[in-house]
Amino acid sequence: MGALFLGSVLAGCNETATAPAETSETAAAESPVETDQSAPPVSSGRDLPRLFDCVREEGGVLIAAHRGGPAPGFPENAVETFQHALDAGIPMMEIDVAESRDGVLFLMHDRSLTRTTTGEGPVADTGWGEISQLRLVDNEGRVTSFNPPTLADALEWAVKTGGILELDRKETTSFRNIIGEVRGAGAENNVIIITYSDEEAWQVAEIAPDLMMTAGVGNRAHEAALLEGGVDPDKLVAWTGTREPSFGKWRGLASKDIESAFGTLGRPGERLDDQYWADGDPSEYVSLIENGLVLLATDTPYRLVSDGGLPTQFINATETCLR
């Protein structure tokens, strides 16, 4: 799928609007910078929950590129990298949201600037004026011409292209601040909020009941408690970890119209991505999809969408929903 095709089909999917209604490194504490975020009606356009329903019903899969799909010359958490991934046929980017010392939300995974930029020092102690002048470094250590983007930059890109962003809150910022930026960009149908605990899931559901989220789902009693606490099952994607596929759980959740997510990403040499590709055969990924997985978070998105990756039947099923 090329960028023009994906951009047009994602932006035009399902014209009905929605009515309002790895392990965590983040802390539950809220940033002191807080704004009033009552939930207005979502802007007209794609209905993201219906898109997920369609992919589940058609037997497709939404591939999420971990940290935005870094590749040689394209660093993690960069808008230019998102476009590179979208051009390759990857519709979803998992990205990390931090906050500078002076309150600017921008994309950064680490607590320090050292690994992924030409700067150094703690993110929380650095102002945006300094951060914005840095250059991003790709995973091979090469300095690129790209600057760290603000969250607003990323959201503007998503609205323009139809891309989907999974937003992973880092400890320097708050859900309330992130959701405020999503509202300001009119990107409600372009984002999924990642949560790492029941408390975080309930907080997001209270602040923004109209937004989709991922939340960990354990046994049936835990699932019931999560929903009783305020999470709308129509806005929930059940996160089921990165270690062992849960075929029975995925099928059970699907019977309740809840989509499941699983990650093959992680530490190089230990992640399932490396194990699954060891023989060059992606059959393990096929098994995940055939057993009900709807969202696959991966460090090898390009291999999955290229020749020799996923069979075309799964790609075509997803495209049907994206049209």
Which key terms come to mind for this protein?
Glycerophosphodiester phosphodiesterase; 323 residues; single chain; 13 helices; glycerophosphodiester phosphodiesterase activity; globular; GP_PDE_dom; 13% strand; 8-stranded parallel β-barrel; TIM Barrel; PLC-like_Pdiesterase_TIM-brl; alpha/beta
Structural class computed from helices and strand pairing: alpha/beta
Helicity, as a percent range: 25-40%
What is the count of distinct domains? 1
Number of strands: 9
Low-confidence stretches: 1-44
**CATH topology, what is it called?**
TIM Barrel
| Morphology call | globular
Distance between the termini: 12 Å
InterPro entries: GP_PDE_dom, PLC-like_Pdiesterase_TIM-brl
Biased composition (Low complexity): 17-35
Domain GP-PDE: 61-308
Protein name: Glycerophosphodiester phosphodiesterase
